[in-house]
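look at this:
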Amino acid sequence: MLILPAIDLKGGKVVRLRQGRAGDVTTYSDDPAAVARQWESEGARYLHVVDLDAAFEGEPRNWDALKKILDAVQMPVELGGGLRTEEHVTRALKLGVTRAIVGTKACESLDFVAGLVKRHGDRIVAGVDAKDGFVAVRGWVAASALKAVDFGKQVAGVGVKTIVYTDIAKDGMLQGPNFAAMAEMADALAGTGTGVIASGGISRAADVRKLRALGKPNLVGVIIGKALYDGRLKLGEVLG
């Protein structure tokens, strides 16, 4: 299972939110590149970056910080947050991002996702952000009537090979992931060739071990944010 440290960008700084609320923010560093180097030095093999400003505003705002991160590390980087146009996605990929995560726009238009997959293949990831089992969009401030597992099947059906599945209620709360929801999504996508990366709620190394113990072959990764920044776990505890 791939372990992806998270770097959430807001105003060029590294921050974390609780349950995705823009007003509930903790700033950890004003040097995102240094944070990226730290995770790489501790053994990380993939980095998860989110442009929070873009997620809320619909327009990427942290290109400079992203470029510094990309220049600072050798490991691949995936980017999410506000990638709602072909131009946004293309710019991110040309800048050096390995994978672009599309969430809100994917929910609004499967044709948009299908077109991206046709052009960029497995470099396109779908972000499935759920609250009470239903997809949330536009920086998690708007709910949809679409069930998360149904959305997962839809994007898998148009060729998306990786899904980042976030349980909003758990994100930044350090209360453990929604194991049942992660297992349900993995089961729903079994046999499709689409992998699931779990996001939200990791609080300790035991949470990662429990995700592994679910025994879902297509549960291919887990994103860890606040627990790392608060020192509740060390990367070395969960790598391997």
